[in-house]
Fold this sequence. Notes:
The chain has 374 residues and is α+β, with helices and mostly antiparallel strands. It contains eleven helices and eleven strands.
Amino acid sequence: MVETDLTRDHKPLEDEAAARRYFAKFERITGLLQSVVREMEAGGSFAPSESAVLVGYAQALAASFRALSLKYLIAGRLTGVVNRHLTIDLHESGFPVFQEILTMANDAAQAQMQLSRMESAEVLKEQMVQRIIARREVPTDLQYALSQRLYLEALGEGGLFWPQMPPAFDHLGVVDGRARLRLHWAVYDSTLNLPVIYILDLEDTGRLPLSQDAGRRARLEAHLLAQSITDLKLLTIARGIDADFDDLHPKRLLRIHLGPMYSHAYTLQTGPIREVLETARAPEGDDWALAWTVEELESARVELEKGWFSATEREVFQLDPLSPAGAERGATRMRRALILPQRPYQALAELNPPGFADVRKFVVGAGDRVIVSQ
């Protein structure tokens, strides 16, 4: 059997200027995500409460990129083991590799202890000034110490995107005497190196409300995180919930992939998007395109599964009736979108490659105004 080396698609950003441009690019993209979500809400793709959930995860992603930018701000100028660079997945991702997010989570667990051992930011700045005046040299080691302190402080503030974001619960009210709940959670997929968000609407017929049933809630949370694997179809995930929890009835399940991010300067593209970015010849700040995919599964009806002494409700899920691949995808529908600046969009429109007709385009115009093209 031939083993696949996933690390061949990984690239450390060793050039400091390139790394700073990379972080600036994602600072812009994560900010634009919030505008795109609002546009999708206006178009009926998301309810306002779902948009609020997605905006929250976009903000968490932005906070993670800010923290990583501080971590690697000076590290590349040092020698030895502390000479470190951000590693990204340059093929079909464009995001930091999973190990970067995992290491950040481990650092966060020790952030307060590490900060207690470090000089304050004010002391470090004063030492830098004294070094510059007395020795007339660049205090690279002190700059590094300050960057690491700021990084740890950012981790301590929380609100970042972690390898696993545990389920949160929202009560949607009561429908026909049944409690309706919305759960949302997220993972940073270790294979795709992409953030993936899940939103689940379900009905609760348990004796105790799920919010008050600690045992059932813990089982469900563990179940959802264990099943948050992109190789699993939504149909498989929903059926698993339906089978393992007789008093929880999944009605709608969404999975949102944020990415890949394509950039002629940072990633290796295949297919039409490569020609689009090459043709665009966009300046650094506009040399990118971000894919966005939404998978959706809905329950069509309920059937009763008869047992020895009772009958259990089982959901029958609606697969895409208009697509021959609907059953294979295991979803009711799938929506694809592309967020890109004007120059790449113009190249896309001129080339008109196959496969993009059903992709909704969000074009970033002047002043970062988002315009819906399709």
